[in-house]
Specification:
With 256 residues, the chain is an alpha/beta fold. 45% of the residues lie in helices and 15% in strands. It has a 7-stranded parallel β-sheet with strand order 3-2-1-4-5-6-7, with helices on both faces. Strand 4, helix 4 and strand 5 form a beta-alpha-beta unit. The radius of gyration is 18 Å and the shape is globular.
């Protein structure tokens, strides 16, 4: 039996589509860019680090797709509007992946207002703005797919992560509401709630912390960025044409 690779399957019918991916310069966002390029999707990447975006652009051009980028801060409302205005002039988009995020752990006793605002600005407020701007372009094009990256912490919570969990829970709530609001425009809105993924965050954990983390995962391993990307491909494609308003956990069976 041949190996099945979702990202390379032509039946996804994504070739020639245009996708915006935020937080695309590293980790899950970078992996998403690679998998979508392999599927023939033209990309608009958004992140703050221009050097990393340039390197990713150069690498992905080997897949014969168009790769553009905007090196901007998603908390800068004006810059985001200007970016989407340029995107509109160049043909709009079919897919939006709101992947950018920020995590800061602090116990309740030490949380300050700026801690709350800094996480909500990137994790929640920027998601709402990008959804607003992208949906306008999708409506003109007859529809599209919006995929928001939430978190398992937004579903279950965790000690010391009350602000981050709240900001991601808000993303899940926004997803469900927008799915209802935008359905008449043929725009599907879903979210992914990743668990522990093998990114830089994991590499910084001690051996004891890693062992404790694995004890809370039914599959007894951390996830890979590609496993998140594959679910994004599914949600962006016609394979998920009757799925909207869902928050899909991709967490290996995490439990607390």
């Amino acid at each position: 039996m041949s190996n099945f690779n979702l990202s390379h399957d032509d039946s996804l019918q994504l070739k020639g589509k245009r996708a915006v991916i935020t937080g695309a310069s590293q980790g899950m966002g970078e992996a998403m860019a690679g998998e979508f390029a392999r599927a023939g999707v033209n990309l608009i990447l958004i992140a703050r680090n221009e050097e990393k975006l340039q390197n990713i652009q150069t690498e992905l051009l080997d897949y014969d797709v168009q790769v553009d980028y905007f090196a901007i801060d998603l908390t800068n409302e004006v810059a985001v509007k200007e970016a989407f205005s340029t995107i509109s002039s160049n043909g709009g988009i079919d897919i939006l992946i709101n992947n950018a995020g920020k995590m800061t752990a602090k116990p309740l006793a030490f949380i300050k207002k700026e801690d709350i605002l800094s996480q909500f600005e990137i994790n929640t407020f920027s998601v709402i703005q990008c959804c607003q701007l992208a949906s306008r372009l999708m409506i003109r094009n007859g529809g599209g797919s919006i995929i928001n990256v939430s978190s398992m912490l937004g579903e279950y919570g965790q000690q010391g992560q009350s602000v981050y969990a709240a900001s991601k829970a808000a993303v899940s709530a926004v997803t469900r509401s927008l799915a209802q609001e935008l359905a008449t425009h043929h725009i599907r809105v879903n979210a992914i709630a990743p668990g522990i993924i093998n990114t830089q965050l994991i590499s910084e954990l001690s051996d004891c912390e890693k062992e404790n983390t694995l004890n809370h995962i039914a599959l007894k391993r951390v996830g890979e960025s590609k496993e998140i990307s594959n679910v994004c491909l599914f949600l962006a494609s016609q394979w998920s044409s009757y799925i909207t308003g869902q928050v899909i956990g991709v967490d290996g069976g995490v439990h607390f």
